[in-house]
Amino acid sequence: MQVISVNPELCTNCDVCVELCPMSIILPSEEGGTPYSPEEATVYCSKCGHCEVFCPEGAISTLFDSTYYQFQDDSPSSLTPSEIGKYMVMRRSVRNYKDEKVEKSTIEEILDIARYAPSGMNNQPVHWTIVHNPEEVKKITSLTIDWMREVVADDIEHPLKPLMPTLISVYENGSDPICRGALHLAFAHAEAENPTGYTDSIIALSWFELAAQAFDIGACWAGFLAIAATSYQPLIDELDLPQEHVVQYSMMFGHPDHKVNGIPGREPVRVNWK
Ligand SMILES: Cc1cc2nc3c(=O)[nH]c(=O)nc-3n(C[C@H](O)[C@H](O)[C@H](O)COP(=O)(O)O)c2cc1C
Fold it and tell me: pLDDT at residue 197 above 80?
């Protein structure tokens, strides 16, 4: 089976597809032909679709299952550096949420953007578990606190152990120091053995958080929860992920309860130029 079909009527043999193929499986045209991908190379195709979308003549169609969106004009609208810079530096961790659920359709729109995040060899290993039911978020918070109680009671050292008694007592006094009263959670998970599963999940979650901002949805990385979700069996059981999957990281999200009025200071860029 071939992975691409090249229309000889349109192909000008510019070999852009040959240059761009990340797996180097598109070979230059031979006498009188067009660039081609040998059948034995099919297995190495990462299905990134670059040959199709970068072909200046629109001569290439990928033969694997994919949905290709063709720009409707020559210059797809793009943000200026100043606009994108402002949008990105305005992102803040949101830790206070309105008691108002986010529509599932909005979450689907955010996830639909996050699925375009880059992944190692375009493997796209990230799966999502979205906790939409606020009662389930409470249960997950309570299980995370149970995990902390066990760690505190145990002799085993844990880097977060010194923090745990305070977090437990905040929880016992009626606040939620784990999910901050958010109504929803996003877990990115992938197969435990996937070599880029963790990195790809972190990138996807970063995209999720940035995309969410455009829908006036705030998010915050849920670090305590993520650690509990990989180490505490009752919580792992509660999440009921597909077999072989592990939580790679988690985020809380919802409608922000407060307006942000500025951009806080950060360290200056530290860079070595060579
Ligand atoms: C890996 C990671 C884990 C985090 N875990 C938590 C957490 O458990 N609870 C929390 O309130 N914030 C958490 N945060 C948010 C950070 O505290 C926050 O990003 C940092 O203070 C900078 O603030 P900003 O995101 O508004 O720029 C986490 C952030 C990252 C990147």
Answer: yes
